[in-house]
Amino acid sequence: MAPFKRHAYDAEFKLKTVGHAVEYGNRAAAREFNINESMVRKWRKQEDDLRQVKKTKQSFRGKKARWPQLEDKLEQWVVEQRAATTAKRLPRKAITFRRYCKKKITEKKIRPEHITNMDEVPLTFDIPVNRTVEKTGTILACQANGQKLPPMVIFKRKTLPKENFPAGVVIKANPKGWMDEEKMSEWLREIYVKRLGGFFHTAPSPLIYDSMRAHIIDAVKKQVKQTNSELAVIPGGLTKELQPLDIGVNRAFKARMRVAWEQWMTEGEHTFTKTGRQRRATYATICQWIVDAWADISVSTVIQAFTKAGIISELPGNRSDTDSDNDEREPGRLDAVVAQLFNSDTEAEEFEEFVDGE
């Protein structure tokens, strides 16, 4: 005996069957579409739900929760317990790094405005989405008192674009569109040294970032040392737990970039080539998105990121996690394919602790 083959019907087929049943009856619909009459009755009861789902949806799996509020609380409790367990299981390197940072900060009485975290955030812009045409490296840096340093934007090209760029951003060009020794040196000289109190190097300042090669070469260590700063290199694989930007800032920044991209794609003024292909956003437009997205990140979000990373304790008068959580929520959502253009992450490879730069 041949095995029974079970058929799956999508919402569009079911609604078509329901429509026929309404006009001619359940039995007639069953004969017309070669299905069991009980299925017709079942689908008629589901008509409202069927009209609210995609035409290709084939089934409603699972039952609705009988006590949704109770289940929400249970889910929240499980998440909290998992978070607590994860915190207890932090690798020894992470615990050592946090203790070392706090010890240095306490011993040298370093104020939050002198504690800086820097990170690279790669962004790729593309039209159409299956062909890369533009890669941009954005260098973000912020301080434990909530202040943000101007972003540096590195375009993937040999020369600087000849456009009128917005204020509040430093523009660079690199054939790979990414940080190297030269660009790292320029960032230290043009952005880091110009931070508040950084020019005269009067206060000791921890500079925290991952162990990307351009961060830890001897020339860079020496340059950091000359600014009266101590380099704190995050242990490999632990940027998600120890880097403030990764923990609570980059996601909010990228969400705002996605919204700006979506608005430009749907509402912006576009030009086209002779072959009818839409041209990319201008370099100046991209930089304006970056400036606006970075400015929109709140002081509270930055402070909370440093706190969650275990670099500083809760600052007096700082607002609750509510503001930080609001910043981390995505202000808009995109199709998954487009959203992938903005995915980014940097992972360290080794543990350097504080590097003296010699």
Q: What do these coordinates show?
A:
It is elongated and about 90 Å long. By secondary structure, it is α/β, with parallel strands linked by helices. The longest helix is centred in the N-terminal third of the chain and has 21 residues, at 68-88. Residues 127-133 and 332-358 have low confidence and may be disordered. A 7-stranded mixed beta sheet has the order 4-3-2-1-5-6-7, with helices on both faces. The protein folds into 2 domains: 11-50; 91-355, Ribonuclease H-like superfamily/Ribonuclease H (Nucleotidyltransferase, domain 5, 2-Layer Sandwich). Helix content is 44%, strand content 12%. The protein has helices at 11-24, 26-33, 37-45, 47-50, 68-88, 92-107, 181-192, 213-216, 218-226, 239-242, 244-248, 250-267, 283-295, 299-308, 321-328, 336-339, and strands at residues 116-125, 134-143, 152-156, 170-174, 205-209, 229-233, 353-355. 29% of the residues are buried. Helix 14 crosses helix 15 (321-328).
Topology:
Layout: H1 11-24, H2 26-33, H3 37-45, H4 47-50, H5 68-88, H6 92-107, E1 116-125, E2 134-143, E3 152-156, E4 170-174, H7 181-192, E5 205-209, H8 213-216, H9 218-226, E6 229-233, H10 239-242, H11 244-248, H12 250-267, H13 283-295, H14 299-308, H15 321-328, H16 336-339, E7 353-355
Parallel strand pairs: 1-5, 3-4, 5-6
Antiparallel strand pairs: 1-2, 2-3, 6-7
Helix pairs in contact: 1-2, 1-3, 2-3, 7-9, 12-13, 14-15
